[in-house]
Amino acid sequence: MLEGNINMFFVAGSSTVLTSLEWATLILATHPKVQKKLQQEIDDIIGKERSPKYVDRNRMPYLQAFMWEVWRFRTITPINLPRK
Q1: Which of 11, 42, 57, 81 is the most buried (most CB within 10 A)?
Q2: How far apart are CA 72 and CA 46, in angstroms?
Q3: Are the C-beta atoms of residues 44 and 59 closer than 8 Å to each other?
Q4: Domain boundaries along the sequence of the chain
Q5: pLDDT tens digits for 15-60?
Q6: Backbone angles phi, psi at 47, to 5 degrees
């Protein structure tokens, strides 16, 4: 039972992350100015010398706002609760 639950969490988590990344990529492909602004913020905060860390997210408000907008704009699950 435990193994089945772990597998379900992994599959469910993988699916929602994939869907979020697909929508974010599509939105960025159609909005190059947003893409450039996000890239600039990432370069300023993280740079090219190191990998991002979890604590970096608090220093990147534009990236956080972008992801919240992706999740607001497009649902990541096939059947979701209504939202305003």
Answers
A1: 42
A2: 26
A3: no
A4: 2-73
A5: 778 888 899 999 999 999 999 999 999 999 999 999 999 999 999 9
A6: 80, -170
Check residue 80 and give its pLDDT.
60
Give the type of residue at 72: R
pTM equals 0.71
The C-alpha atoms of residue 18 and residue 46 are separated, in whole angstroms, by 23
CA distance 67 to 41: 14
Contact 23, 76 (CB under 8 A): yes
The answer to whether 31 and 25 are in contact (CB under 8 A) is no
Sorted by sequence, the CB contacts under 8 Å of residue 57 that are 6+ apart come out as 63, 64
Predicted local confidence at residue 71, as pLDDT: 84
